[in-house]
């Protein structure tokens, strides 16, 4: 045993000092040691997040405005606040010192409250007329803050999530990573737009008046630097981050090659094709609609290279999601199986589908993964199982949607309308660039193409949609003019989907790889199922009693009305008394049923508490005792 003389000797002091140093080192490393035992790996950051925060070129400070004191009596919100703070701390640990976190409790009438308002964090009332709380996040580039001697204030480059909504918990990691990348790269992304449709407006050759752009382009211009790409382009500018390719018809080989090489260089693309573009059935700027047989679009060779299967001669017909339309002189709306209103169950649990409610499409195609494809194919929007693929000819000159009812035979399959395609791909031009088009006499210098790429230099990221009509105003938004301004009033989520997709693609390649996560709060599914069984057994009797009670009350009211102006006869009085007795008995039985239901649910809770707090420990003790007994018997038998 070590005595005090040994402890305070030179050797003892050295050993004690070494022990303290090792202990401090181990304790300092503990925050970086992680074992995540949750089912959905809630506390494990995606590799894309780790790459984003660890490769920041300058420091970013995270300001988490959280009214901790005001939410002390709201356990759900308090638990969610802890979850958010833990996720932010994980990101700080993974950032190699480039991220810092400051948790701020903006109590009323404080400088912190003024700071939260200045950064755009929203006040949210806990209840009607109750306290207002803050629950938002600010990412701040600390290198852009004013230095000493400069004008003070909340200056610098920053981005804000005004309210961290609890119903968006699955997307927290993505939203926080996106916020950080927006601060690290504050310049708006450059979007190249290539289409022969009049989406971006134009000039009506008959009236020589300009035509308005579709509302979706107004929305895109608010967040992106939009640049038109000539349909005859031979090389897509390297400054373009995202290519928006809509209804690619009659593109030259040189233009297709330019798109192919743009994607292989790491450019992102949002592509819209259509087996039957209803938009082209309307008179164009020249007053002439495109012939029905020329209203389809495709990218056959490139889809083959990207691992996507698509038939421009097939259209999805869907009975469950069919929209109601007015046709001709019909007295009531009828179902149009070719016009699809996809509900929430048709959306994948993906960042792009976040917040979508319903999306409207018209004569859509179907996408699928090509056999032997090397890319990842992730459906984003799908039809219902009550659908089929019809020949596109049915829709070329369709005037009566009821014709589709006679031809409809569901295949019990869900068809993909929109999909995310990612991975490594090879070129659609294995023999190199196509021969140059005959040069026209022009003063412009010939285009010098960069070295040919036979495969992608990194991970390709694209979103492909088999419909272009969903971009048109008529399927998702009503527009009102107010003082010369166009005010959109959306009635579908088409615009939200486009903006979500572009926003997702606008991030770096690491951000695109981050997917939705599980929820911190997990329901007790077994308890819910048991409660549902108990509820089903007693709810029927409760419904019958309520119906009897309403019938009894109606009969009492009728008897009372029949005797107005004169007293009831003895027979009537006896009938009224009987109905009152029946009413009281019914109410008594109804209270008993409701009480029984509550008791059964409470009993389930008590049983589960017993299992968790007593039964499991008892079983463990019995197991240990049995194992000890068996070990003793085995030892005794060996000695014997």
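^ Assign residues to that structure.
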């Amino acid at each position: 045993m070590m005595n005090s003389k040994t402890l305070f000797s030179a050797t003892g002091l050295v050993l004690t000092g070494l022990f303290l140093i090792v202990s401090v080192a181990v304790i300092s490393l503990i925050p970086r040691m992680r074992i995540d035992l949750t089912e959905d790996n809630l506390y494990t950051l995606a590799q894309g997040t780790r790459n984003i925060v660890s490769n920041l070129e300058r420091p970013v400070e995270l300001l988490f405005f959280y009214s901790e004191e005001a939410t002390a009596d709201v356990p759900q919100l308090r638990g969610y606040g802890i979850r958010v703070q833990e996720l932010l701390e994980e990101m700080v640990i993974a950032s190699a010192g480039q991220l810092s976190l400051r948790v701020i409790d903006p109590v009323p009438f404080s400088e912190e409250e003024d700071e939260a308002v200045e950064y755009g964090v929203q006040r949210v009332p806990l209840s009607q007329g109750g306290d207002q709380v803050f629950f938002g996040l600010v990412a701040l580039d600390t290198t852009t803050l004013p230095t000493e001697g400069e004008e003070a204030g909340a200056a610098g480059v920053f981005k804000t999530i005004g309210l961290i909504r609890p119903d968006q918990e699955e997307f927290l990691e993505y939203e926080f990573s996106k916020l950080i990348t927006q601060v690290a790269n504050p310049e708006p992304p450059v979007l190249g737009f290539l289409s022969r449709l009049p989406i971006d407006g134009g000039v009506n050759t008959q009236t020589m008046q300009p035509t308005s752009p579709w509302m979706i382009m107004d929305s895109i211009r608010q967040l992106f630097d939009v640049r038109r790409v000539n349909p005859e382009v031979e090389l897509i500018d390297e400054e373009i981050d995202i290519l928006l390719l809509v209804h690619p018809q009659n593109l030259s080989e040189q233009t297709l090659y330019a798109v192919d090489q743009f994607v292989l260089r790491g450019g992102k693309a949002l592509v819209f094709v259509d087996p039957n573009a209803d938009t082209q059935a309307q008179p164009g700027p020249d007053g002439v609609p495109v012939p029905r047989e020329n209203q389809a679009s495709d990218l056959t060779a490139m889809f083959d290279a990207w691992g996507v299967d698509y038939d421009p001669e097939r259209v999805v017909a869907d009975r469950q999601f069919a929209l109601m339309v007015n046709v001709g002189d019909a007295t009531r709306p009828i179902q149009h199986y070719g016009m699809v209103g996809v509900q929430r169950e048709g959306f994948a649990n993906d960042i792009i589908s976040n917040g979508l409610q319903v999306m409207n499409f018209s004569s859509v195609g179907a996408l699928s993964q090509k056999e032997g494809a090397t890319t990842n194919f992730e459906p984003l929007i799908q039809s219902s199982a009550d659908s089929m693929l019809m020949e596109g000819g049915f829709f070329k000159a369709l005037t009566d949607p009821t014709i589709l009812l006679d031809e409809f035979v569901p295949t019990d399959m869900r068809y993909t309308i929109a999909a995310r395609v990612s991975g490594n791909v090879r070129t659609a031009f294995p023999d190199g660039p196509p021969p140059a088009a005959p040069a026209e006499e022009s003063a412009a210098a010939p285009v010098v193409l960069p070295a040919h790429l036979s495969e992608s230099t990194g991970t390709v990221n694209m979103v492909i949609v088999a419909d272009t009509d969903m971009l048109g105003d008529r399927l998702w938004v009503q527009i009102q003019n107010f003082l010369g301004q166009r005010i959109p009033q959306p009635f579908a989520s088409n615009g939200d989907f486009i903006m979500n997709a572009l926003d997702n693609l606008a991030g770096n390649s690491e951000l695109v790889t981050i997917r939705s996560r599980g929820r911190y709060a997990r329901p007790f599914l077994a308890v819910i199922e048991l409660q549902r069984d108990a509820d089903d057994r007693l709810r029927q009797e409760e419904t019958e009693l309520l119906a009897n009670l309403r019938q009894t009350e109606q009969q009492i009211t009728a008897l009372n009305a029949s005797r107005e102006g004169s007293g009831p006869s003895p027979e009537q009085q006896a009938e009224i008394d009987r109905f009152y007795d029946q009413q009281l008995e019914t109410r008594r039985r109804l209270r008993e049923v409701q009480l029984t239901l509550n008791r059964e649910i409470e009993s389930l809770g008590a049983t589960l508490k017993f299992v968790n707090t007593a039964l499991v420990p008892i079983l463990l003790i019995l197991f240990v005792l049995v194992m000890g007994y068996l070990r003793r018997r085995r030892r005794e038998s060996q000695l014997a």
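The radius of gyration is 34 Å.
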